[in-house]
């Protein structure tokens, strides 16, 4: 049986190599670096790999400015002011809480025992501040996954503490969905029984029924690799998309469900052109076209959408998405790799090569 699987994998890799290296008649072929036929992403105005921001999925200059000040001075007050000014409605507050927590977690990883001191000071000096509690809870969740592994005692201990801090944060800001969205990740890690998870989800829905971040967190729980199945995840995503109001990016949720159940090596010919994947992509494209240009969730959807468009060889559409999101790579699917910028750059290079091979050029590329 092992031999059979090895042969199947080798066959898939061979097919993939032939597909992208040996296609003729306007397809993609290998070209030597510097060759006139080589596709150059910089010719299309795209950022260099080293210029890509791995911290965020899309632009938020206010957040970046505050992060720079906080990390340079180790003074938490600018972070507190920014969160206090960020409405609890919508997605922006949740994204900023994640960013502050991620920055503190990364600092601690880089400088054990010292990094992220500003968050510890914020929590101790302003114990009744809702923003501090929310960032602390999210920091603990990220620490559990960054420093431990599912099933280990320390993993459970950290998430139990995160659960406690989520409760404290909820009491400090009763109408804010963020503490409950954070607890959805705790529920996944601690394997809440389904009734307990449903009670938590009801609290989220009471406060933010169309919150995309919350739905993405809940989708993980429903996935086959956690506490559900492919069918349960599809049902959850499809139901959310069906009740999404006009302009909501929840219509893209089925594409995230497909991604969560896509294996690294796809043995089905033209998988990315199958009816299931095509429907999910069309739903995401529709959501992107209907969404507000300043919707903070829009970059998250664009990143995953372009991943599928490139694999489906929909070159012109993928280039449209790259134009809209280029410069930032802090989102799935790039963040699951060890080098998000490199993974993104490779996908973008494939899109440029495919676009050029089919008659596209910098002059024909649509820009806003």
Annotation, overall tally of beta strands: 0
What is the typical, i.e. mean, pLDDT?
Answer: 88
Integer-rounded radius of gyration: 22 Å
Terminal CA distance reads: 53 Å
Total number of helices = 16
Provide the succession of SSEs. HHHHHHHHHHHHHHHH
Largest sheet: none
Strand content: under 5%
Q: Helix share of residues?
A: 55-70%
Coarse structural class: mainly alpha
Principal-axis shape: globular
Low-confidence stretches: 1-28
What does this structure look like?
With 368 residues, the protein is mostly helical. It is built from 16 helices and no strands. Helix 5 runs antiparallel to helix 6, helix 11 runs antiparallel to helix 12 (253-260) and helix 13 (275-290) packs antiparallel against helix 14. The model is unreliable at 1-28 (pLDDT under 50).
Please describe the structure with a list of short key phrases separated by commas or semicolons:
single chain; 368 residues; mainly alpha; 61% helix; globular; disordered N terminus
Provide a compact summary of the structure.
The protein has 368 residues and is mainly α.
Secondary structure elements and pairings:
Blueprint: H1 2-21, H2 61-73, H3 77-85, H4 92-110, H5 117-125, H6 130-147, H7 153-172, H8 178-190, H9 194-207, H10 212-222, H11 230-242, H12 253-260, H13 275-290, H14 298-311, H15 315-325, H16 340-357
């Amino acid at each position: 049986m092992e031999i059979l699987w090895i042969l199947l994998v080798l066959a898939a890799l061979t097919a993939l190599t032939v597909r992208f290296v040996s296609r003729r008649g306007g397809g993609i072929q290998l070209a030597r670096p510097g060759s006139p036929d080589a596709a150059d992403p910089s010719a299309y105005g795209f950022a260099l790999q080293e210029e890509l921001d791995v911290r965020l999925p899309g632009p938020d200059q206010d957040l970046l400015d505050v992060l720079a000040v906080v990390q340079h001075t180790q003074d938490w007050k600018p972070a507190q002011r920014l969160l206090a000014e960020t409405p609890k409605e919508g997605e922006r507050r949740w994204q900023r809480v994640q960013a502050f927590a991620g920055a503190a977690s990364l600092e601690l990883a880089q400088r054990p025992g010292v990094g992220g001191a500003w968050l510890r000071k914020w929590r101790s000096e302003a114990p009744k501040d809702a923003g501090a509690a929310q960032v602390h809870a999210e920091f603990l969740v990220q620490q559990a996954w960054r420093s431990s592994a599912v099933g280990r005692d320390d993993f459970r201990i950290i998430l139990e503490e995160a659960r406690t801090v989520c409760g404290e944060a909820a009491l400090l800001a009763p109408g804010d969905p963020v503490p409950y969205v954070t607890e959805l990740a705790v529920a996944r890690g601690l394997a809440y029984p389904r009734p307990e998870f449903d009670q938590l989800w009801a609290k989220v829905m009471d406060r933010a029924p169309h919150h995309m971040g919350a739905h993405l967190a809940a989708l993980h729980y429903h996935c086959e690799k956690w506490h559900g199945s492919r069918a349960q995840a599809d049902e959850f995503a499809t139901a959310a998309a069906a009740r999404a109001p006009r302009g909501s990016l929840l219509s893209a949720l089925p594409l995230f469900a497909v991604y969560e159940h896509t294996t690294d090596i796809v043995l089905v010919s033209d998988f990315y052109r199958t009816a299931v994947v095509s429907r999910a992509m069309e739903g995401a494209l529709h959501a992107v076209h209907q969404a507000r240009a300043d919707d903070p969730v829009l970059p998250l959807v664009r990143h995953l959408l372009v991943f599928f468009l490139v694999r489906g060889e929909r070159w012109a559409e993928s280039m449209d998405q790259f134009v809209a999101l280029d410069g930032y790579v802090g989102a799935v699917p790039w963040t699951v790799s060890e080098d998000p910028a490199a993974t993104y750059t490779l996908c973008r290079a494939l899109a440029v090569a495919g676009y050029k091979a089919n008659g596209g050029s910098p002059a024909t590329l649509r820009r806003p």
